[in-house]
Amino acid sequence: MTEQVERNANNTVISEILEANPELEGIGTYEYGWADSDIAGQTAKRGLNEDVVRDISSKKNEPEWMLNMRLKALKFFDRKPMPTWGTDLSEIDFDNIKYFVRSTEGQAKTWEDLPEDIRNTYEKLGIPEAERERLVAGVAAQYESEVVYHQIREDLEQQGVIFVDTDTALKEHEEIFREYFGTVIPTGDNKFAALNTAVWSGGSFIYVPKGVHVDIPLQAYFRINTENMGQFERTLIIADEGSYVHYIEGCTAPIYKSDSLHSAVVEIVVKKNARVRYTTIQNWSNNVYNLVTKRTLCEEGGTMEWVDGNIGSKVTQKYPAVYMVGEHAKGETLSIAFAGEGQHQDTGSKMVHIAPHTSSSIVSKSIARNGGRAAYRGLVQVREGAHHSKSSVVCDALLVDTVSRSDTYPYVDVREDDVTMGHEATVSRVSEEQLFYLMQRGLTEEEAMAMIVRGFVEPIARELPMEYALELNRLIELQMEGSVG
Amino acid sequence: MSTLEIKDLHVSVILDDENSKPILKGVNLTINSGEIHAIMGPNGSGKSTLASTIAGHPKYRVDSGEILLDGEDVTEMSVDERARAGLFLAMQYPVEIPGVTMSNFLRSAKTAIDGEAPSLRTWTKDVKEAMGELKIDPDFIARNVNEGFSGGEKKRHEILQLELLKPKFGILDETDSGLDVDALKIVSEGVNRAHQNNDMGVLLITHYTRILRYIKPEFVHVFVDGHMVDQGGPELADRLEEEGYVSYIGK
Q: Residue limits of the SUF system FeS cluster assembly SufBD core domain (chain A) (predicted)?
């Protein structure tokens, strides 16, 4: 009730701003909001029941065990109540969502083999260009429910690196797939992980053999095209002993009046002394609910790094986790969230220290503007026996105006005496003096604001590969357009 | 040749949504390109308010009067428009901008003021030279704007910007405060260079005469309680050095 009042108050202020500055209408334009023609999507069924799950499984010719797992997950999903914490999910209409949309028959090995409008979409997103320029070592492009394009550099394949879509992995590498699938995030972990397990389709499967270093990133690109689409990709990454891989994902969708749902599950196993970096630049349009479960099991001496950028979506709830199960395992999360008008980003991280001498670090930066709401939510848990563990949490929030909101929910649960913990949190506002200073040097108010925000996220941006740092800066600039009221 | 004219300027400081307080009570001043004017006066006389008002600080409201740059009233212009029109304010308390390097900041400012990006090669050379003359360690170019700078380092960087951005008029708001003798000399030389090389008009705001040993004003104005109470040539500064402002207070 108070929240409703608050939202109305925000809307009033924003509409006042827009009345006084009509040129700001249509501000912060979302660049990726086009939609392709949509025959596959139009004919797709809405709603979820056992038949839908059986249908997905049979279309994919899956083995019996997978179907059984899906059906079990569906029961979990039906039984589990909606989470009541975090964000407002009450408007999600599970009966209105399309759970499976097949847009191409079979997967293309060249961009030319894709239907023209899908190919154009990826061209506009710059994906084939990145591949041509060898900025990535492998590309997966998922359109609606399935991966429509896939390619990996030959030399990596020769070294035994597997990078395929998850459906193909189940067909071609069933043994290793079955060994790990659902072991990091169990079927009934939470309502949305259960939903994903019931209806999952697409996603990436990566296996990096012992000692192999994949020197440039593997990239996946997720695109939702149809309205009321549910995208449920499932990603599984196994980095064998002493290996290294960097996986990058990006996501966009068209702007529609009604909402879509993206609910992914990402499971990662980091074996002894291996290292995985997982970078997300999430830029869904503002009608997508983004409810994602990401978790890593990190073994002895292993390192897991989450770089999690959330710029788009209507609502995001995502807390990438690292379970440090081996001695000297390390977990790191760098998180950036940007909440503009109508957006609620509830993000953070979860670090679970299970073995001794494990260390974790969380750095979170959130920016709220134009009535947006950004929250840091994090858990650091040190279980009994995880002595000599270290953890550090730094979360900084920046408010660009007086109508936006920032919250911090740090949870700490320590069951061991000999541990080192640090926590710092700051909330700051863009000051009048900073704006005055930059504008006195000739920058417009928008440019000045964008410069301050870019500076604020710089500690995370510098961790990104250069072209992604540029992309992040560009997205921030787009978000900041019309930020001046 | 440019002219900055201030005519019967009345200004209030905005305290909160409802309250404001009059500070400037009818200021008149004309500065031409190439001239150096010093405004001197005791603390709280409104000198800094005049500087901030010319630059358009949102804390101050013009109640009446005009600020004309080459005949055009700037009071209707935004802060950045005034900056691009050629008005530069060297701040008394330059603020920190975390995460933004000096290099990025200087280039962005230059691009904004000139309306186009400077040519990369000459720009790097210009910055290096200007930093050298102001005895700024080259490492500062990679540091964040004003972050962890000492008072003296901040002031040098203000003058660095003044030299690189080449405004028509430079307003120095107590640039001399908090500087030791060596730094004062270096900063003053920077102002003199900008004045000579670019025919810049200077409005020097100070309450000490110390800086006037290095920067020689042709016009000295005495400012008390929101308006000019006296003006003259360099000899007026000498008199103030001896007598202070006592004779003006309560006039």
A: 222-456
Which pLDDT tens digit goes with each residue over A85-103? 899 999 999 999 999 988 8
Please give the ipTM for the structure prediction.
Answer: 0.97
A230, A261 contact by CB (below 8 A)? yes
d(CA A83, CA A99): 21
Alpha-carbon dihedral A110, A115, A120, A126, rounded to 10 degrees: -30
Q: Sort out which chain B residues have CB atoms less than 8 A from A445's CB and list them.
A: 78, 80
Contact (CB<8Å) A442/B58: no
pLDDT tier at A15, thresholds 50, 70, 90:
very low
Q: Do A439 and B78 touch (CB under 8 A)?
A: yes
State which residue of chain B sits closest to A398, comparing Cα positions.
Answer: B98
Domain that holds residue A246: 2-437
Which residues are bridge partners to A247 per DSSP? A218, A278
CATH number at residue B93: 3.40.50.300
Q: Do A447 and B112 touch (CB under 8 A)?
A: yes
Instruction: Measure the CA–CA gap between A323 and B94, rounded to whole angstroms.
Output: 45
Cβ within 8 Å, pair A451-B79: no
Cβ neighbours for A337, distance < 8 A, ≥ 6 positions apart? A309, A310, A316, A345, A347, A364, A365, A366, A367, A374, A376
CA of A1 vs chain B CAs: smallest distance (Å): 29
Q: Do A451 and B105 touch (CB under 8 A)?
A: yes
The Cα of B246 is separated from the nearest Cα of chain A by a number of Å equal to: 33
Is residue A338, in this structure, part of any structural domain at all? Answer: yes
Residue B251 is assigned to a structural domain of this protein: no
Number of continuous H segments (helices) and E segments (strands) in chain A? 13, 22
Query: Which parts of chain B register pLDDT below 50?
Result: 251
Chain A CB contacts of B161 below 8 Å: 441
Query: Looking at the domain assignment, is residue A456 inside a domain?
Result: no
B79 and A436: CB-CB below 8 Å? yes
Residue of A nearest to B51 (CA): A440
DSSP string, A91-146: T--GGG-B-----SSS-BSSGGGS-HHHHHHHHHHTHHHHHHTTS-SEEEEEETTE
Whether residues B98 and A437 touch (CB distance < 8 A) is answered with no
* pLDDT tens, residue by residue, A316-326: 999 999 999 99
Query: How many contacts does A have with B, using Cβ atoms within 8 A?
Result: 79
Q: Give the pLDDT score at A284.
A: 87
The CA-CA-CA angle for residues A246, A250, A252, to 5°, reads 175
B249 lies in some domain: no
Q: Does the distance separating the beta carbons of B144 and A455 come in below 8 Å?
A: yes
- Give the closest of B55, B58, B84 to A432, CB-based: B58
Domain presence at residue A424: yes
Nearest one of B84, B33, B82, B25 to B58, comparing CA atoms: B82
User: Is there a domain that residue B30 lies in?
Assistant: yes
Per CB-CB distance under 8 Å, the chain B contacts of A469 are none
- In total, how many domains does chain B have? 1
Q: Does B80 contact A452 at a Cβ distance shorter than 8 Å?
A: no
Other beta carbons less than 10 A from residue B43's beta carbon? 8
Task: Report yes or no on A446 lying in a domain.
Answer: no
Provide the whole-model pTM. Answer: 0.83
In chain B, at which residue ranges do the beta strands (DSSP E only) sit? 3-14, 20-32, 36-40, 60-69, 72-73, 87-90, 97-101, 144-145, 169-173, 201-206, 219-224, 227-232
Measured between beta carbons, the chain A residues lying within 8 angstroms of B58 are: 432, 436
Reported as type and span, the H/E element at residue A158 is helix A154-158
Query: Does some domain include residue B250?
Result: no
Q: How confident is the model at residue A28 (pLDDT cuts 50, 70, 90)?
A: very low
The nearest CA of chain B is from the CA of A466 a distance in Å of 16
Structural domain including B154 reads: 3-243
Chain B: nearest CA to A346, how far in angstroms?
24
